[in-house]
Amino acid sequence: MVRTETRAAYREAILDAATRVFGRLGFQDAKMADIAAEAGVAAGTVYNYFKNKEEVFRSILQRTHELVYQRILVHQQLEDPIERMRASTREAFAFLEEHGALFLLYVSIGGGFDWAQKRIEQALIDENHARYFALSQATMRDAAARGLVRSDIPIERLSVFLSGLTDAVIFSWVRAGCEPGLRNQADPLIDFFLNGARAP
């Protein structure tokens, strides 16, 4: 048990170090030796846990998705589905603000993987997106049952519309240089989703 815990701690330390290295040097220029030096271990130790830097990055990506998911999951206990939407969006935006460098790195390496690697990454992204989307649909279904959102549009489409708005706000934030304040856009986004652009 102790050995398992020690191995897990080493793995997390390597991932933390790799996140800093990728953020500082970029994915293309970073080497496994750089990650080892940052983690304060021998290069061979890093290879005991990961076969290459692509696997390191994939592990960072999976860990990040899990952290975001768990933070959003906390708000699923809220009784009011609209407040659930607001809190979940705020949480996702807050996480992006806290980890903006990692998100930018993820966006920037789109062309850095070969075709086979991209298929692996896309499968991981699709799997995690499905989990987030399931939460969104459950909240939307609850809101529809209470008469809080339109019932003439399928739940799946409403969730797609909300997801599209969310993505647009995030990428607009990225293009603007990831300035502070993303989390403050969560409530206006939900208000716009619920009420549209028509003047009151």
TrEMBL record:
Residues 8-68 form the HTH tetR-type domain. Residues 31-50 bind DNA. InterPro entries: Homeodomain-like_sf, HTH-type_TetR-like_transc_reg, HTH_TetR, Tet_transcr_reg_TetR-rel_C_sf. Keywords: DNA-binding. PANTHER family: HTH-TYPE TRANSCRIPTIONAL REGULATOR PKSA, HTH-TYPE TRANSCRIPTIONAL REGULATOR RUTR. This is TetR/AcrR family transcriptional regulator.
